[in-house]
Amino acid sequence: MQKWEGDILAKAINKYGVNAQLDMCIEEMSELTKEICKKKRGRNNIEEIAEEMVDVYIVLEQLRMICNIDSAVLELKKFRKLKRLKERLKDDRY
């Protein structure tokens, strides 16, 4: 994330408050869930899904900042989870 992006997200947290931004995180994730459900029912809503994915990305970055989680920690956890998934994909049981 670029510094200017983090600055904007920090200003939003300061302006609206932690609880409001946590609520926003929940709301944006539910909106993405709604669009995924529509896709499963056959709707061609790729633009809406992309829009909601961006909103979720933004609020997840704010959540990371609120919880004081280092980006490097997330990258390491992502690497480990992907490695585990790769191993599972080699297993014929899955």
CA distance, first residue to last residue = 35 Å
CA-based shape? flat
Biggest beta sheet attributes? none
Low-confidence stretches: none
| Gyration radius from CA atoms, angstroms | 16 Å
Strand content: under 5%
Following the backbone from N to C, one meets helices and strands in this order, namely HHHH
Separate helix tally = 4
Overall mean pLDDT score? 95
Using DSSP, what is the number of strands?
A: 0
Report helical residue fraction: over 70%
Secondary-structure content class: mainly alpha
Keywords, please?
single chain, 83% helix, mainly alpha, 94 residues, 4 helices, 0% strand
What's this, in brief?
The protein has 94 residues and is mostly helical. It contains four helices and no strands.
Descriptive notes:
It is a single chain. This protein is mostly helical. It is built from four helices and no strands.
Describe the secondary structure blueprint for this structure.
Elements: H1 3-16, H2 18-40, H3 46-66, H4 71-90
Helix pairs in contact: 1-2, 1-3, 2-3
